Input
Amino acid sequence: MESLPNSIDECHKGMRLLLEMVNSLTKRIESLEVENRELKERLNNNSSNSSLPPSKDFKKKKKQNNRQSSGKKSGGQVGHKGHFRELLSSDQVDFFQRCPLPAYCLCGGKIHSQNDYMRHQVYELPPLKLDVTEYQLKKGCCLDCKRHHIASLPEGVSWGITGVRLTSFMTDLTTKYGLSRREQKEFLAAHFNFNISLGTVFNKQKIANAALETPVSELLEFIKKSPSIHADETSHNRDGKTQWMWGFVSSSAAYFSIHASRGKKVLRSMVSDFKNIIISDRYAAYNVFDSSQRQICWAHLKRDFTKISEKDNKIIARIGKNLLESKSLLFNCWHKFKSGKISRDSLLRETRPMRDRIGELLEQGAYTDSTLKISRTCKNLLENFNALWTFLDIENIEPTNNHAERSLRPLVIWRKKYFCTRSDYGSDFVSRSASINVTCKLQGKSSFEFLCTAIRDYFAGRKTSALVLTG
Output
């Protein structure tokens, strides 16, 4: 046990040391409280209040089913209109097979055949077999110089073992249907009795990658002529290092490209000359565009507002709940406009109070504790406040960035299976094939047929223009 102070000076010195210790412990407690609050917020992050996908939700909330039971059994109800496949006409049927009646009935009586029959059609997969074409190239020799000659292959035919359609099909198996090279090799052997090496599969992908270079590079210029672009980015693993897949999607075309950076320099290098409206989330890189040229995604704002409404602080939580209520009222008006129930003038008039209310709530949030994330979020939204309402003022602008996120979704699924690319060729192959697949889907065209055209032109020494898609 330490001895008691022997003088007033020693007593004062001990008190000073005690106060310093208390102050130090107070600061430590405050630091731990902030850290604890941040960790609790991270623990409570889910797909409804952050950018986490639903698969990462730690505890999924069960939705209450408030619908009252009708008392009927599940399944098809009496009086429900059935749906049946119509029979094909006779000229569309490949084979006919007559099924004769037995001569006698079970009762022993003779069956009289009528001049009518019931039609029953069965769809069947024919035996799969690749067509093999042997090109016999005539040889000759010049009578004067004795130079040897050999005939040329027809235009669009390569010296490789696979033709245009098979090469395109092999590319689709990887990019569109998610088969690995080994799975693709096994699929071709099992269903077509076509045995190739993994190296051959790799070489065919390199052909497709080269064939798509020109048309995909032209897609971006076509997209930049659109009245609006949906932009988004997602992480991409390149040989163990994090890179970024950028996507720019219009109503009829998509362009994807993989870069080492997620910064503003990528946007400047690709779309700095774009003068119309860009639709995106609140990511800071998109601040290279003026607020008058942007539409911030309201699906992301809903998650931000939900996050605020779940705070422990009752005042802050009330701000978040009021923001969510105002957002719901706003989109009720928007859906009425989209369904044709109100005009755009009525939309602007009815949403004016909601704009003002959301602005007031964001100002309230901005004046909360500056150390809190809610304050920074609200200040950021106030700085880009005009970008929240572009969809109300300009025709054909969507309030969310769902279009870009749906377009990126197949790439995210592909990434989960393939993990990474390991070369510039691999990254180019992924982004180029995705650009063609999504563009064709948006236009209701066959990506397989376009790929066939591109590879046929590549074999013939021609360049395929993106106008084949966009024209």
